[in-house]
Design a protein that fits this description.
The complex is a heterodimer of chains A (about 375) and B (about 180).
Chain A (H helix, E strand, L loop, with lengths): L1 H7 L9 H35 L7 E13 L16 E15 L2 E9 L1 H4 L9 E9 L4 E9 L19 H5 L3 E10 L4 E8 L14 E11 L2 E10 L3 E11 L4 E11 L6 E12 L4 E12 L18 E13 L2 E12 L17 E12 L1
Antiparallel strand pairs in A: 1-2, 1-16, 2-3, 3-4, 4-5, 5-6, 6-7, 7-8, 8-9, 9-10, 10-11, 11-12, 12-13, 13-14, 14-15, 15-16
Chain B lengths: L1 H9 L6 E2 L5 E8 L5 H14 L6 E2 L2 E2 L2 E12 L6 E15 L2 E16 L5 E3 L5 E2 L3 H4 L2 H27 L19
Antiparallel strand pairs in B: 1-2, 2-7, 3-5, 4-5, 5-6, 6-7, 7-8, 7-9
Helix pairs in contact in B: 2-4
The chains are: A mainly beta (about 375), B alpha+beta (about 180).
């Protein structure tokens, strides 16, 4: 009877006695049996999957966790781009958990995240949804996807496993993070495909404000092997218009060059931004890759009536941001040391302050991040 | 028991050998008494057309023998948390003679996958790692695991081929419609 009571109560709060010991011992036995059964099934299913040629993929779990330390050389946080926002603190990014499954022509992706990086990247912090969509492939060339999806615009992404640099660019921070809508993709050939869709009137919203009125399209071109270019547009009466070019070329097995260029304008009063970022990366050993992000970003003047101001230099100003990053890999774990220097063209457009709190044109920081992807 | 399973699983790597070009190869010669070259070739062709989806095994033919390319996924992790690490592309050859046939799989090249912004596992373009030089770019543990999966896949490829060779029922059925005339009786 006491034993049953012991099981009913939360065992961690129980005093450690003989009954608790028995309970833990039984649990341990059950756990080991479960583990044995799972590993047996796993080994058996591994061989079967390869024979089946994975037509119906198993339920796949993927994701990442990340943590970082940042030291802005002024002693306080200055650089306003997304994530890695805490200064002189060992802080967390997020735990990101995705589930995906394909059966026949139908598939779904559901991706949840928790942590400060989640809160800074989705419209409603309590929702925790990064991706939630379903897809149907009408043929190997034509598919439809509906739901809440990571944006098709830009070089960088929310997930830390998808970026080389840990800090993010101004183009990323000011562009869309997600677009909810319905899109169709048609592959004309292995080298050319087109996506077109209709999305919610605003970026980064789970629910539209008024209607579903943003048109988005992406033309994907592979001019030569290992070089892919994406020409993107998102335009709507509420969201404004962004044109974007994102391209990456793996020139050799060790050297990759990426480029992102974009221009955005609001629907009214001519405000917006434009910029370009270059991403050369070179693998110096099988574990270490070095990369530079060199970004130029300009905030448009707008008009006196304009209320829009991008994150970064004040309207009319521009910034040159140089980020030197290393990726040091140990299995699924990546250590990311990074040094960054941002310089604004004129002090009047800068919101940076030095260690004394005086306005300054430049800011610099060091980040050490660890990302585990699975 | 776990140790036993681990040993059985890791033994698949030993099915591979090196060929004259110092490349990994899975090679088998199978004696098939009672079947002539043409029959074997028909059944091998039907195997290539039916056994695998077209985008995973591509059919080719040179001077009466079959050769082509194929690919399969390298998956790690336990059932509920499987992770697609990449894909292996390979070249296969099937040759038939009276009473016997042989086949081999070689040129195993690993391309790592990454998870894209939509959660899809996609190949990393431009990174092709021949498994013979695998340890230059991958951990030895990874290479061993991939070779195990290549061994398992190659063995299954051979078993599937044998099934199609042995089983005439696997060949396309005569689809001539059976019509009964009620006029003449």
């Amino acid at each position: 009877m006491q034993g049953i009571e012991c099981k009913k109560a939360p065992f961690l709060k129980q005093p450690y006695n003989f009954l608790t010991y028995n309970y833990l011992f039984n649990m341990k036995k059950k756990f080991l049996l479960l583990l044995l059964a799972a590993s047996t099934y796993s080994i058996a299913s591994k061989a079967q999957d390869t024979v089946k040629t994975t037509q119906d993929a198993p339920l796949v779990l993927y994701g990442s966790v990340d943590t970082y330390y940042k030291d802005d050389f002024s002693g306080h946080a200055n650089i306003p781009t997304s994530f890695a926002s805490d200064n002189n603190s060992v802080s967390i990014g997020m735990i990101d958990l995705g589930l995906k499954k394909t059966v026949g022509n139908a598939s779904f992706v559901g991706e949840m995240s928790f942590g400060p990086r989640n809160d800074q990247s989705i419209p409603t912090a309590g929702y925790h949804i990064q991706n939630l969509y379903v897809s149907y492939a009408f043929s190997p060339k034509f598919s439809a996807t509906a739901g809440y999806m990571s944006t098709f615009i830009g070089y960088e992404v929310i997930s830390p496993t998808g970026n080389f640099n840990y800090s993010t660019s101004y183009l990323f921070t000011n562009g869309p993070f997600q677009n909810a809508g319905l899109k169709f993709t048609y592959a004309f050939s292995d080298k050319v495909s087109l996506m077109a869709g209709i999305f919610n009137d605003e970026w980064n919203v789970y629910t539209s404000q008024h209607d579903v009125s943003t048109f988005g399209a992406q033309l994907t071109i592979t001019p030569v092997k290992n070089w892919t270019a994406y020409l993107n547009v998102a335009t709507g009466p509420t969201s404004g218009t962004e044109f974007d070019l994102t391209t990456a070329y793996q020139i050799t097995s060790a050297f990759k060059l990426g480029l992102n260029a974009a221009t955005y304008s609001t629907t009214h009063y001519s405000a917006g931004f434009s910029g370009v970022a270059l991403y050369p990366q070179i693998a110096v050993s099988k574990a270490v890759t070095l990369g530079l992000r060199e970004e130029y970003f300009k905030s448009d003047n707008g008009t006196a009536l304009s209320t829009y101001a991008p994150v970064g230099p004040l309207p009319g100003g521009s910034v040159l941001a140089s980020t030197l990053t290393a990726n040091i890999k140990a299995g699924p774990l990546t250590l990311i040391p990074e040094v960054r220097l941002d310089g604004i063209n004129k002090q009047q457009y800068s919101s940076f302050t030095n260690s004394s709190g005086d306005p300054t044109k430049s800011a610099s920081q060091f980040v050490l991040a660890v990302v585990y992807g699975f | 028991m776990c140790v036993l399973f681990a040993k059985v699983a890791s033994a698949q790597k030993d099915l591979l050998a090196f060929n004259e070009q110092n490349k990994y190869m899975y090679y088998q010669v199978v004696s098939q008494p009672g079947l002539v070259t043409d029959t074997l070739k028909d059944r091998a062709l039907y195997f290539l057309e039916q056994a695998y989806p077209k985008n995973t095994v591509k059919k080719g033919e040179t001077s009466g023998n079959y050769t082509g390319t194929g690919k399969f996924l390298i998956v790690t992790g336990i059932t509920a948390a499987k992770h697609v690490e990449g894909e292996v592309n390979y070249t296969y050859y099937i040759e038939c003679k009276d009473q016997k046939y042989r086949y081999w799989l070689t040129d195993f090249v690993f391309t790592p996958y990454k998870v894209d912004r939509y959660g899809n596992s996609v190949p990393q373009p431009g990174i092709d790692i021949p498994l013979e030089n695998g340890t230059a770019k991958l951990d030895k543990k990874q290479v061993d695991s991939y070779l195990d999966q290549i061994g398992t896949y190659s063995k299954a490829f051979g078993e599937k081929l044998k099934y199609y060779i042995l089983k005439p029922a696997a060949l396309p059925k005569d689809t001539k419609k059976k019509v009964i005339s009620t006029k003449d009786w």
